[in-house]
């Protein structure tokens, strides 16, 4: 493992518990293992989710606390050192005061001075909460005018074909996470109420691990910035 | 949450008749309303075989009706929580009633 002289820092600003694990858990585990200081924001507690365990053991009123604990456990699996909730109700991020939300994220960026900021793409996020937190984080990043780099997380291996989304391979960072799939699987299992319905997650480790891809893909948020390598966010 | 026992839920619903009640109501994929406050005039349950309808008549002129409810619980704060789950634990509908507001 390489070590750096000054501690590298990563800030991820997402919408729901499980975004960090399901979308890019391998990346978190990889950089945590390299000593990167990781802060995760979850705008909501995912308390309006539909999956209540299988068989169901949650209801709408017990869900927030359960998912908060699951996320804390997942952070432990992935090596995410600091977790911040914004206490916005699930499914209402796009209705939150945009200026206040952007300001809050900007303050966080100024305070932490992260080398890398990760969030959702404001158009390709796929869920209104994702797009809204992505839009606010992107605006906050631009305003903070920090030294860091902005990347958007993406789903599965969709960015093997970035041209379908109006991007090129030069906009895509492809991170090899194959050495960190055990941690990623553990984080899936930490989000128990969400993954009990997915039988593959609970297969014996070797079979379950075969369901996880070897790479995770990130889109450059500052497209004009020079990119040294295309397999590393730092 | 346990499977709905109709006479028991009927009795729990009756506790709210004549009271100011805060409601959380949702059709999970489409709509939720949290903390609307009504005076409950009648509280009724219908159905059999594991899937039930519940209707509240309120404020002398209103109705709330929900269907596909399968499970219920009276939680530690005396709130009646009703929900409808599918056979893999996914929630479709919920109807919660309490005498205090639910956390926003």
Mean pLDDT of chain A: 95
Radius of gyration of chain A (Å): 17 Å
For the termini of chain A, the CA-CA separation is 14 Å
The CATH homologous superfamily of chain A corresponds to LmbE-like
Protein name (chain A): LmbE family protein
InterPro entries (chain A): GlcNAc_PI_deacetylase-related (IPR003737), LmbE-like_dom_sf (IPR024078)
Pfam family, one (chain B): DUF1806
InterPro entries (chain B): DUF1806, YojF_sf
Sum this structure up briefly.
The complex is a heterodimer of chains A (234) and B (104). Chain A is α/β, with parallel strands linked by helices and 234 residues long.
Commentary on this structure:
The complex is a heterodimer of chains A (234) and B (104). Chain A has 234 residues and is of the alpha/beta class. Chain A has one domain (9-220): 3-Layer(aba) Sandwich (Rossmann fold), CATH 3.40.50. Chain A is 35% helix and 16% strand. Chain A is built from seven helices and seven strands. A seven-stranded mixed beta sheet of chain A has the order 3-2-1-4-5-7-6. In chain A, helix 1 packs antiparallel against helix 5 (181-190), helix 2 (63-78) packs antiparallel against helix 5 and helix 3 (98-112) crosses helix 4. The longest helix of chain A is centred in the middle third of the chain and has 17 residues, at 128-144. The radius of gyration of chain A is 17 Å and the shape is globular. The two termini of chain A are 14 Å apart. The model of chain A has no long low-confidence stretch (mean pLDDT 95). Chain B has 104 residues and is mostly beta strands. Chain B has a single domain (2-98), classed as Hypothetical protein YojF (Protein Yojf, Chain: A, Distorted Sandwich). Chain B is 9% helix and 60% strand. Chain B contains one helix and eight strands. An eight-stranded antiparallel beta sheet of chain B has the order 1-6-7-8-2-3-4-5. The radius of gyration of chain B is 13 Å and the shape is globular. Chain B starts with a strand and ends in a 6-residue tail after the last strand. The mean pLDDT of chain B is 97. Chains A and B meet through loops of A and strand 7 and strand 8 of B. Chain A: It holds the Pfam family PIG-L. Chain A: This is LmbE family protein. Chain A: It comes from Paenibacillus glycinis.
């Amino acid at each position: 493992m390489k070590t750096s002289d000054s501690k590298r820092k990563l800030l991820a600003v997402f919408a729901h518990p499980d975004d960090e694990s399901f979308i890019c858990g391998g990346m978190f585990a990889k950089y945590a293992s390299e000593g990167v200081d990781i802060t995760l924001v979850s705008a909501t507690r995912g308390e309006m989710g539909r999956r209540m365990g299988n068989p169901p053991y949650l209801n709408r009123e017990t869900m927030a606390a359960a998912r908060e604990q699951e996320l804390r456990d997942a952070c432990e699996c992935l090596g995410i050192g600091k977790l911040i909730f914004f206490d916005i109700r699930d499914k209402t991020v796009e209705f939150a005061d945009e200026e206040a939300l952007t300001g809050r994220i900007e303050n966080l960026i100024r305070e932490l001075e992260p080398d890398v900021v990760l969030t959702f793409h404001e158009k390709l996020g796929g869920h209104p909460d994702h797009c809204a937190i992505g839009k606010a984080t992107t605006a906050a990043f631009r305003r903070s005018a920090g030294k860091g780099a902005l990347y958007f997380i993406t789903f599965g291996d969709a960015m093997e074909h970035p041209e379908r989304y109006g991007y090129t391979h030069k906009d895509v960072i492809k991170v090899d996470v194959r050495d960190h799939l055990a941690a990623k699987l553990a984080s899936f299992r930490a989000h128990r109420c969400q993954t009990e319905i997915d039988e593959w997650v609970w297969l014996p480790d070797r079979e379950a691990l075969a369901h996880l891809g070897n790479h995770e893909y990130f889109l450059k948020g500052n497209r004009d910035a020079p990119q040294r390598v295309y397999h590393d966010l730092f | 949450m346990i499977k709905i026992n109709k006479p028991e839920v009927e009795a729990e619903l009756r506790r709210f008749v004549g009271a100011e009640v805060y409601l959380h109501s949702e059709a999970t994929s489409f709509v939720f309303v949290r903390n609307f406050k009504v005076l409950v005039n009648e509280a009724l349950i219908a159905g059999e075989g594991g899937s039930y309808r519940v209707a509240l008549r309120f404020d002398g002129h209103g109705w709330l009706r929900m269907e596909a409810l399968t499970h219920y619980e009276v939680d530690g704060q005396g709130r009646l929580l009703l929900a409808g789950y599918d056979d893999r634990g996914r929630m479709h509908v919920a109807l919660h009633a309490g005498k205090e507001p639910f956390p926003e």
